[in-house]
Amino acid sequence: MFDPLYMLILAVGLLLSGGASFLVKSRFARGQKTGLMTGYTGKDVALAILRSAGITNVRVREHRGFLSDHYNPVDKTLNLSPEVYHGINASAAGVAAHETGHAIQHARGYAPMWLRSALVPAANLGSNFGPWLVILGIVLGAAEGAGLGVTVAKVGVALFGAATLFTVVTVPVEVDASSRAKKLLGELGIVRGGEESEAVAGVLSAAALTYVAAAITSVLTLLYWAARAGLLGGRRND
Prior knowledge:
By secondary structure, the chain is mainly alpha-helical. Helices cover 71% and strands 5% of the residues. The chain has one domain (4-228). The chain has seven helices and three strands. The chain has a three-stranded mixed β-sheet with strand order 1-3-2. Helix 2 (42-52) runs parallel beside helix 4 (90-108), helix 4 (90-108) crosses helix 6 and helix 4 (90-108) packs across helix 7 (195-228).
């Protein structure tokens, strides 16, 4: 089943994700050098935004792990890494505001976020089993001809399609959270214009690229498996 095209897609994915990850870390480190005149920590930023949005049922807590920041809609917690929770700088403010943006999305019933949450089970199945079902379908097709093999391969493509849809829907969810973050940081006077706001924008735009890279890689991979399953052009059994 070795295919140079698949190796190329993997290489492109690694380059995109690696480049985006490097950019995030470098922008975050740069933003840490830009202090906030307001003296707000990441925790303070999150609490201030939650108060302004009238959200009182979300807890802000420290979570171990570098850049492990996330909002958990199940238990309604904002989990901030130590660098963000205690940080008094543009990077900490940007990341904290971004994650709080997800809490606001949840509270306001932002449709793409709910769709992404609904896709989680299918996306997990698709990413883990989709490609293997396509391969199994190709093998069955080669051994028995069209029929069962084609059906199995199509099921595999459909499952992986759910995983791809998850990555695609994630992009507007993350972009919207960043847009909310930048707007609220300015409206509440937490971040001043100039160097502070530019540093925040730099961190958030770099973070968005990681999700764009994941979506591009997943779409390319889906097209590959669809072609192998015979849904795009002729099915390849070699």
